[in-house]
Amino acid sequence: MSPRLPTGTRDTHGQQEEVIITTNRRVAATLISAAAALTALTAPAQAADTPSGGAKAITCYGTARTYTAEAGTGPKDNAHYPDRGKWTKVRGNCDDINIKTNYTRSVVVCTHNKCHKPVTAPKGVWTVIFPNSTKDAEYYLQFEGVNASTGVIAD
Questions:
Q1: H or E element at residue 120
Q2: Is 155 exposed, middle or buried (0-12, 13-18, 19+ CB in 10 A)?
Q3: What is the DSSP letter of 45?
Q4: What does the alpha-carbon distance between residue 74 and residue 13 come to, in Å, rounded to a whole number?
Q5: Do the Cβ atoms of 155 and 94 come closer than 8 Å?
Q6: In this structure, are residues 104 and 122 in contact, taking their beta carbons and an 8 Å threshold?
Q7: Structure confidence by residue, pLDDT tens digits, 70-121
Q8: Which residues of 87-125 are buried (b: 16+ CB within 10 A; e: fewer)?
Q9: When comparing pLDDT for 153 and 53, which is higher?
């Protein structure tokens, strides 16, 4: 009497290759699914808004805009964005005011209440220059030194 095989298998010259291959594929698929689920649970969330109508979510940095700061007029006059005497508003696409400068600069965020502590924004790196911003809040930026500053801002 030959040994008893699991249901759905066949004995081809004493080999159970079909069962082994099918089982290995099922195990591999289960492991891949579990890994994907764990990755989704542990991946950091990105700031995003979902426009009305169920359109694709827009990331914080995806709504960034370029800026050019107005140069200072002398040694004690910092560059400004927007131009002196003007304000820009937080768009609300991000939780913070973020900047990526084309040159390393010290940046000060000024609100109607006060000018806050300077933050160093390294060249080409997204840097939070004002945490926990409020949509439609007005602010302007001062860049230490007279040289105009250029880069990208996301708020």
A1: strand 119-121
A2: buried
A3: P
A4: 92
A5: yes
A6: yes
A7: 999 988 899 999 999 999 999 999 999 999 999 999 999 999 999 999 999 9
A8: ebebbebbebbbbbbeeebebbbbbeeeeeeebebeeee
A9: 153
Amino acid present at 138 = E
- Burial per residue of 19-44, b for 16 or more beta-carbon CB atoms within 10 angstroms, e otherwise: eeeeeeeeeeeeeeeeeeeeeeeeee
124's torsion region: left (phi>0), alpha (psi -120 to 50) or beta?
Answer: left
Average pLDDT of the chain to the nearest whole number: 77
pTM for this structure? 0.62
User: Tokens 């911003």 identify what position?
Assistant: 133
* DSSP calls for 52-112: TTTPPPEETGGG-EEEEPBPPSSTT--EEES-TT--EE--SSSSSEEEEESS-EEEEEE-S
Per the model's pLDDT, the better-predicted residue between 132 and 2 turns out to be: 132
Q: Which residue has the tokens 């010290």?
A: 106
